[in-house]
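User: structure tokens for SCP domain-containing protein, please.
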Amino acid sequence: ADRCDLFRRQLKFNRNHQNLVSRRGLCSRFYKPNFNFFFVFKTFKSEHDDWMNTFMIWHSEAHHLRYGVFNGKENDNVKSYTQMIWATTYEIGCGVALHHMGMFNTYYVCYYGPGGNVIGELPYKKGEPATECGKYGKSHNYPELCG
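Assistant: Done. Predicted tokens:
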């Protein structure tokens, strides 16, 4: 079973997550997606999703990153960050699920496609931003990114 199938089975109780994975099609593309997963356990139901905190936690791994070829084990402490910034990823789908079993469990997941963290590859090329955008050109809204 691929990661998407395994993850769907792990979150059977949550229809919203299954819909994110199935309807958005990230797991049915010609590439294999990768994902970041974060969960919070609280004794109370939160009124708002805490995406900013989730992304900040994933981003906080950046200070551990030593730029170079991704090799797996040595990169365990930066995998969420490198997945977020992986240069060849161009589709992202995120969702949140709340499940109550004594505590309020909030699950945050983002699927990235094509998946990054590829052993033997660099997360991105060093140099001037958005200089190898090819047919897409630079983004009008974010000129340091490809469009």
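User: Anything notable?

Assistant: The helical segments are 3-10, 15-24, 51-59, 79-85.
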